[in-house]
Design a protein that fits this description.
With about 350 residues, this protein is an alpha+beta fold. Helices cover about 15% and strands about 35% of the residues.
């Protein structure tokens, strides 16, 4: 027995309520639907064109047919009306209603968010001003009373207080251990019954530059081998706009000298970007310096050497080689993501990204 179908129809008009829209509607099952009785699998998408009145009619499999598996699936609907008007949403088609109008299913969607655009010149000017303010503060706190950097005084005072506290505690512990050792020496003929006591507490090291400075009890050889490490930092962001054509978008402005180490993104709305050598996206991480962009790393959604973008799964540049020269950023450089469209791949919707970078 065939699965239940629902006849979906509708009319799409422009805001004057008279002029019909022109374009297409795409209906795609979020998951493949199995029909065990008919030994079939229903999947894929239906594309329906609007007639001169802006209307359409299409027969689709119900989303809750008990003879299908799984039940409760949805259709992802994409309205493409004109060159630049695209809207996406999900609907259910219960089999209990054999005929339904799209107007009864379409959710009320918010309009596009207000966006304030900043020119590259403004971004660079702001970065230069903030860098100058940091440098002015550094100069104000240098060589005061012969101290190379008075900004370190607070940290050194706090560390000195902590060191004094620990030294007093170590002294008190040493006195207590000596008293206990005296009281437990040669008990039952054992020379020193306190030998199995707790291990010595390691002492603190003072803050310094280069090799560590040892307090009593430290091992100077081990301290001399210590070197400071710089941890990676991260920057996160979310972008709401839909990409349907070749474009670029700014992700990050370097506030100081750094190297870009990694980037991962996730496409959050439903609908995957299938891998294809014909219809694919080329994604380039680019460093902009003085308004001129140079590639840092490139990845595609091709089958050959690329990777499909699966909705709500990480898509990273971990396996991509980064250019050793252009991955190095100066203060004021901008990291951008350039999307180049080849063929007719699916649009890129809401997405989030995480950037890893390292100060130098």
């Amino acid at each position: 027995m065939a699965l239940t179908t629902v006849t979906l129809s509708g009319v799409l008009l422009q805001p004057d309520q008279e002029t019909p829209h022109a374009g297409t509607l795409t209906f795609e099952l979020a998951h493949a639907l199995a029909d065990p009785a008919g030994d079939r699998v229903i999947e894929g998408r239906r594309v329906v064109g609007l007639d001169p009145t802006g209307g359409f009619t299409v027969d689709l499999v119900a989303t809750d047919d008990p003879d299908g598996f799984p039940t409760g699936v949805t259709y992802h609907v994409v309205e493409r009306l004109g060159a630049d008007m695209v809207r996406e949403y999900d609907v259910e088609l219960p089999g209990a209603v054999p005929e339904v109008d799209l107007a009864d299913l379409v959710p009320a969607l918010p309009g596009p968010p207000a966006v304030t655009y900043a020119t590259a010149a403004n971004l660079v000017a702001e970065t230069v001003a903030r860098t100058a303010a940091v440098e002015a503060h550094r100069l104000d706190t240098t060589d005061v009373h012969g101290i190379p950097d008075t900004a370190l005084l607070a940290d050194q005072a706090a560390l000195a207080a902590e060191t004094a506290t620990r030294a007093a505690a170590d002294g008190a512990e040493a006195v207590a251990r000596q008293a206990h050792e005296t009281a437990t020496t040669a008990v039952h003929g054992i020379p020193d019954t306190a030998e199995d006591g707790p291990p010595a507490v390691p002492s603190l090291r003072t803050l310094g530059t280069g090799a560590g400075q040892a307090l009593p009890g430290d091992t100077p050889v081990a301290l001399a081998d210590e070197t400071p490490s710089i941890e990676e930092l991260t920057s996160n962001g979310t972008i709401e706009t839909t990409i349907s054509a070749t474009t670029s978008e700014a992700l990050f402005i370097a506030r100081f000298a750094l190297t870009v180490e990694a980037l991962s993104l996730v496409k959050w709305n439903t609908g995957d970007i299938a891998a294809s050598d014909v219809d694919y996206w080329t994604v380039e991480l680019s460093r902009y310096r003085g308004g001129v962009g140079t590639a840092v790393a490139t990845k595609t959604t091709k089958v050959t050497g690329g990777q499909a973008i699966t909705s709500r799964h990480s898509w990273s540049f971990d396996a991509v080689a980064f250019n050793a020269v252009t991955k190095a950023f100066q203060a004021g450089d901008v990291l951008a993501m350039v999307w180049t469209k080849t063929g007719v791949p699916a649009n890129i919707g809401q997405r989030a990204y995480t950037l890893n970078y390292r100060p130098i």
